[in-house]
Amino acid sequence: MNNLKTFFIVIAFLSFYSCEDEKNLVGPCEHTYNEPILNITSIRDTINNKYPTFVILRELKINGNPQSIPLILSNSYSVVANDSVYYCNVPFGFGVEDGTYQFIIEAEGFQPKLINIENVNYSIFKGGCPSYNDGGKRVEININ
Questions:
Q1: DSSP tag of 47
Q2: Rg (Cα) of the chain, in Å, rounded?
């Protein structure tokens, strides 16, 4: 009976102090994303060798699934959204989910173009407690 009590006391203690961060402070395990998983570094007009600095994204899907604005914007930069339309200043980044990203991109003076980016993933994963992902995919998009 004493062994059973000791076991439960140890389990209770460990549940409160389940991990330590790098500063040796006791706290909860957390996973963070140091940057978005998809980073658009530039948009290029290959005919005129111009680089638009503002684009609009529509119909964003990840792995074929339409996306919710709050989830995409929770880890993003240079992106604002309104009614499932994303307004982006180049460079910009968003998302944390691995897979295939698909969207229609629009830039002033260009026809809308369907973009499909496969194998979007992080290059760095540090496990443990806490843990993180870093090293998102970097892409240059050609709009013509």
A1: T
A2: 21
3-class DSSP state of 63? coil
Model confidence pLDDT, tens digit, residues 100-131: 999 999 999 899 999 999 999 999 999 888 99
Contact (CB, 8 A) for 20 and 66:
no
Residue 26: φ, ψ to 5°: -80, 135
Burial of 47 (0-12, 13-18, 19+ CB in 10 A): exposed
Query: Residue 43 in contact with residue 92, Cβ under 8 Å?
Result: no
Give the tens place of pLDDT for each residue, 72-94. 888 999 999 998 899 999 999 99
Domains of the chain: residue spans and CATH: 28-142 (2.60.40)
Whole-model pTM: value is 0.77
Query: What span, in angstroms and rounded, lies between the C-alpha atoms of 57 and 114?
Result: 10
How far does Cα 8 stand from its chain's mean position?
39
Nearest C-alpha neighbor of 115 from the set 34, 38, 35: 38
Q: What is the pLDDT of residue 26?
A: 54
